[in-house]
Amino acid sequence: MSVESLFPRLEPLLPKVQKPIQYVGGELNSTVKDWDEATVRWALMYPDAYEVGLPNQGVQILYEILNELPDTMAERTYAVWPDLEALMRAEGVPQFTVDAHRPVRAFDVFGVSFSTELGYTNLLTALDLAGIPLHAVDRTDDDPIVLAGGHAAFNPEPIADFLDAAVLGDGEQIAIAISEVVREWKAEGEPGGRDGVLLRLAETGGVYVPKFYDVEYLADGRIKRVVPNRAGVPSRVFKHTVMDLDEWPYPKKPLVPLAETVHERFSVEIFRGCTRGCRFCQAGMITRPVRERSITVIGDMVANGIKESGFNEVGLLSLSSADHSEIAEVAKGLADRYEGTNTSLSLPSTRVDAFNIDLANEFSRNGRRSGLTFAPEGGSERMRKVINKMVTEEDLIRTVTTAYTQGWRQVKLYFMCGLPTEEDIDVLGIADLAKKVIKAGREATGSRDIRCTVSIGGFVPKPHTPFQWAAQCDHETVDRRLRELRNSLRNDKQYGKAIGFRYHDGKPSIVEGLLSRGDRRVGAVIEAVWADGGRFDGWSEHFSYERWMKCAAQVGVDVDWFTTREREEHEVLPWDHLDAGLDREWLWQDWQDAVNDVEVEDCRWTPCYDCGVCPTMGTEIQIGPTGRKLLPLTVV
Amino acid sequence: MVQRLRVRYAKRGRLRFTSHRDISRALERAVRRAGIPVAYSAGFSPHPKISYAGAAPTGVASEAEYLEIGVSRACDPQRLRADLDSSLPPGLDVLDVVEAHAGSLADRLEGSMWEVRLTGVDPGEAASAVAAFLAAPSVEVERLTKKGMRAFDARQAVQTLTVAAAADGTAGQEPFPSCVILRMVVRHETPAVRPDDVLMGLRLVAGFAPPSPPAVTRLAQGPLDAMTGEPADPLELDRVGGDL
């Protein structure tokens, strides 16, 4: 059965919508394969607007890897804006891929990558536009396997009813393995139909099929247990870990869009995982252990990426890029290579120390010396101990002052509000810190031309972290603390003008909290919000807190119970059967340590503290130094 | 900068949905991939020296877009044409490159010839609307601009306007709806009169309202020939050695 392009039906709609170029495909390095020559066909979605989804590394990597397989093809689809959605509904045009404009429903696997829970309503729009039943139990053999991945898939329970399957962790190898299972199943004549292939996937232990698990509840609403309801389905599902990043140097052919996107650069992941142990950080907990890409492969990937894309900016990505064991050599080597070429290098800088400034100086050799960002995260010394972000006030002021004296005029400080055990004084401490920074900076530089911007994010407790048991702070308290902080900064005659303040209100964090730590009962809220018109919840102009609260009340879900309620040690959490390798007892101990202001060191440089990941997953820390250097590129 | 090159390129097919900003990003990247020694502006944030003249609106195709590239090392125009063309996505096609001589390229772009394909339209109805439009001394239309709704005359800038049945063999044949082609030469004035303004004018003077969105293509732009009234090749002067 061949599939026709929907483009002739889409094209007449495009002159009527905003930014039509995002729907036409044809990106440099995109791939269109012959439909009939592939046996396994994937539609990959990033459930946000094209401008956000296109640069996503995860989707780009899987797209490339799957298309490299001879009998597999992958195309991409993104969330369509409401203007096009309305026209598609009016004209009966289904959800399409941007590569060859094929209908999503015609594919075998519909893989959706969730970096954030705020994309859940967009999943429902895409399913509905595609003509795929919203609920997995209503799907037929003509529907694709709806598969979730990404960090939010570490607790897919709120969207469990809408998914056929979910995978945890690094996608490279498991995507290939899933392709293989689907290929064999199809070659055998699709025995057992839809459940046949889902059972094969579940039996591997690496793919979670929610409908093969029953959730039982206690009378008070807590979960009693989650148990498989079929023979052969394992009681726990484990995450996937790619152990040698040098063997997976993707993207090799970065997608270069015509439309403007949020990241106009070529990005190289310089390592995966982080063991700094910041207790609020889900990414740092679920991506362990640290696995570095070697300096020479980084150099090759940068050279190749610039050549293939024509981008003039390169970003070195990771959870804490300054922690790469050879980052100084990488920075110097790349800065030397691209000196005078109008290629700029960027490093998301979060570490608060002088070394970070040396790096930033190196990176700004070829470009502009605009602003530096540091992330102390907590406003008081005590708070930073609670979250295990080991920075003293003295360190911070010394580091920022050094940045000012070396010519950086603008420093951004990132904090969180609503952290466990937080009190008003911890948040007001942010104002004191900012004022001290400006005071010290003015003394050191003899100039008043220095600025500092305080940027605040709302803390949301996440699954698989020590704070998974914590009570989320209510939004009234967060908003009140932020108001007081703002007033303290604004009313300061001496320093107020030199300090910028950026923050969001606390309401979206409550919805994110509901979706992060929710269980299957939260699915009804998501569906009700979507049916009521909820779309693009990550966008403040589309997000409606009132709608979420109204719909939660309608379906009888108590938002406070899921968000601001502290859990006790032995409560069964909705994601307990999904294994990131972290030892539950260690997580609980780390939560107790947090409350008692006890810090824990990074296991890269101190002995193992038994978080459990390496023995459970059969992995180990992989770091340099390799001792190798980046040689100058030969000019052609 | 040692040399300036003038480039004619086309924006075809689905690439007509690119905006001017999309094209400028695509070009800067294509220039880098092709290894063209583009010159950069001096200063705090250097920009490649590429300047654009009169870009067609988003959604409109074009066979005649123009830009100028400054290079830091002399380039053979034909080589640059091939390199840049192969580096750009299909649909952004480089048609012609010449070395710039004296005179401003933008000044030579006095007018454009546009083709507007309309489907599901009765040719007779289109012809009478065109006649009514041409007979009117002025036709005031409104368009939403960045400064809000703005009214201006769409008639004076229209030098010629003709209507013909589509010659591609599909017109009028079932199940294809009938298709007509409008051709117009419009002088570049301020405020700019665009083909959709002329279509708005046809609606105002004759109630002419095509049922589906028009497919618009710029066929040519350049100095308006006094004899024919049509745009001539704006790069001709560079080929013969510049303005006198």
From TrEMBL, chain A:
Gene3D superfamilies: 3.30.750.200, 3.30.750.210. InterPro entries: CHP03960_rSAM (IPR023862), Elp3/MiaA/NifB-like_rSAM (IPR006638), Radical_SAM_N2 (IPR045784), rSAM (IPR007197), rSAM_sf (IPR058240). It comes from the Bacteria. One of its GO terms (molecular function) is iron-sulfur cluster binding. It holds the Pfam family Radical_SAM. Residues 260-502 form the Radical SAM core domain. NCBIfam families: rSAM_fuse_unch (TIGR03960). PANTHER family: RADICAL SAM DOMAIN PROTEIN, SLL1084 PROTEIN. This is B12-binding domain-containing radical SAM protein. It comes from Acrocarpospora phusangensis.
UniProtKB/TrEMBL annotation, chain B:
InterPro entries: DUF2344. Pfam families: DUF2344 (PF10105). Residues 224-244 are annotated as: Disordered. This is Radical SAM protein. It comes from the Bacteria. Residues 4-195 form the DUF2344 domain.
